[in-house]
Amino acid sequence: MTDAELFQQCHTVLPGHRARTPAQMFAAMAAWCEDNRVAHDVYGNGALIEEFEQKIADLLGFEAAVFCISGTMAQVTALRLACEDRASSLVALHPTSHIIVHEKSNYQLLGHFHALLAGDRHRPWSSDDLRAIPDKLGAVAVEIPMREIGGQNPPWEELEAIKAHCRTRNAHLHMDGARLWEAAAGYKRPLREIAAGFDSVYVSLYKGIGGLGGAMLAGRRAFVERAAEWFRREGGNVIHRSPYVVAAAMQFDARLAAMPHYFRRTEWLYEVLRDFPAIRVNPARPHANMLHLHLPVARERALAIRNRIAHEHKIWLFGRAAHGALSDTSAVELYVGENLAALPDQRVRDSVELLARAMAGP
To answer: Which residue, 135, 224, 134, 219, is CA-closest to 174?
Structure first.
């Protein structure tokens, strides 16, 4: 049985949002389009997409925003343009940056820019990490929150120091805001305030929002228009963006409104996990509605335990598992969304206890 088939058999799912079948998703989209008299855009021109782009821009405090088919395309393009503007091809990236870890060296192979790694891969950035780079930087890219270290954010004062340092240094400051929607509750500040001081921001339309895919890049209007032209050059000029925009727009306001509740549920989950000391949580307190669980078993055993509990109890505990830094350890990610928020407290506790008992057994 595949993981997908096993997942489908579970009546209790801890991570993420409720999964919709294609039929359910498309039916909801069709009904929303009917209610709102939605017409297709043509190569990005149309009332729905243009209004949604401006909505994102206004929410983040920028002049403009443009849809892009993927965050992978949006980010390296933005950083390339930033480097051209500053006459330096150097971009400071954290060692856990999505661009480094997941984007197959695209920035290097496609000649977008050169990356300089800064900081400790187990800690958020500080302004001192940037000061340690003596070279002229074209851009600095900060991920908020930082997924690969459990959704951590730099402390607010440190984030403000990073913004000030980049202004003084005349380096373009870009935000990888794939999960920015989740960070606002942790910072307890509006999105516009978090984004203030950045020159550009990328946000995802599918991760926390639950759309089909796609991204937005926000910034100054002239910068965004240049990026849009590069998206076309890079093959992102799909004739109709409307399926992606509809899937995000129809649930966007509700998802953003739910983020504070997801964060409070994450804080509650941390208290539950204190009763299971074998499960180590990163970060030590929640910065967003996501966290990493560090387990005292090897990755293969963690997955076997997950699958056995799914088969026997119809409970899906987590998705992927990664090798831990120490031998015979592993790490898994929990995104606290619609699923865990809707589960009874005792069922969540019982599910965690099943995991703890299985790890303690032979």
So the answer is: 219
Q: In the numeric block, which tokens belong to residue 299?
A: 């990755």
**How many angstroms separate the CA atoms of 301 and 348, rounded?**
21
- Judge whether 332 and 322 are in contact, CB under 8 Å: yes
Q: What is the predicted pLDDT for the residue at 323?
A: 97
CB count, 10 Å around CB of 82?
A: 26
One DSSP character per residue, 141-191 reads EEESSBGGGTSB---HHHHHHHHHHHHHHT-EEEEEETTHHHHHHHHTS-H
Residue 34 CA, chain-centre distance (Å), reads: 30
What is the Cα–Cα distance from 79 to 93, expressed in whole angstroms?
11
The sign of the torsion formed by the CA atoms of 187, 191, 196, 199 equals positive
- How many helices (H) and strands (E) would you count in the chain? 15, 13
For the CA atoms of 44, 46, 47, 50, the dihedral, rounded to the nearest 10 degrees, stands at 20
Between 1 and 153, where is the model more confident? 153
For residue 282, what pLDDT is reported?
97
The Cβ-side half-sphere exposure at 240, using a 13 Å CA radius, reads 6
99 has pLDDT over 80:
yes
* Residues composing the chain: 362
Q: Which residue has the higher pLDDT, 248 or 105?
A: 248
Q: 109 pLDDT exceeds 90?
A: no
Instruction: Give the integer Cα–Cα distance in Å for 245 and 293.
Output: 33
The two structure tokens encoding residue 207 = 């991760």
Question: What rounded mean pLDDT belongs to the chain?
Answer: 96
